[in-house]
Amino acid sequence: MKIQDVLGASPFVRMGMRLSRIVPAGPMYALARFIGWLGLKRRNNLFCAVRGNLAQVLGPDTDPHELDRLARDAIVHTGHTYFDMFRTDSYDYVKGLVPIRIDPDDWSRVREAFESPRGTVVVGPHTSNFDLAAQWFVAQGFEMQALSLSEPNKGTQTVNRLREERGMMMTPIDQGSLRQAIKRLRSGGIIITGVDRPVSPDDEPLPFFGAPARLPTGHVRLALQTKTPIIIAACTQDDDGVYRIHLAGPLEMEVSGDRAADTRHNAIRVLEILEEIIRQHPSQWLMFWPVWDND
Length: 295
Description:
Helix content is 53%, strand content 15%. By secondary structure, the chain is an alpha/beta fold. The protein folds into 2 domains: 3-86, no CATH class; 91-284.
């Protein structure tokens, strides 16, 4: 059995949730370090997927030992982020007990977009505690429909239920959820989704860190169809342990009249911003699926 299947299994996720609420941070962080060390020693599928992605991000001249270290650190960081998310609840966000840092000018600009009647598409990468950041938005009083994987494993389904308990509206991507998203955007609502993970082999390749990757473009098609802007949101962790929410936009869609060309052009604009964030925090890009077709 692949380690992704083990870590994604519902019993494993439920156990992690329970332990995070009763066990202090020290032992849980030690467990994360052990899992990272195990991945490095066994070079399992999860470790190799992270390492392969980082090799593309950092380039062919990167020292192999440095790639090993960064891939191990990404696995360790994942454990930290899950622990920090599992041990918080909705009241912690409201009371300001969640360690989050955000530039007030950026937030003022994005908040204005959220409150406008046009609707907003929020996209981001799987960096650091992206769940914590999304739930922070909801705690500020903004209802969000999250477009998630169409066929999540049982562990992801368990986490999705937790996300719903924190106020997120989780909708696996299908025709019904997309119609719901269009209606929501046209009525001034907010859609949120990740855009750095391949979801379909039928997607046209887009340039990402200098190589073609089959990444989704549905967020751009939604923005073009509803004439709404895109906000880029990402989460990283500072050296003092506080999570930082990075915001870019609102990004207005640039149109030429050629829908296919416009979709590709605007999707690339979004990816270029994501590249900048990921390149600055490579060990916090928690992408456990191969993004590129290379071995």
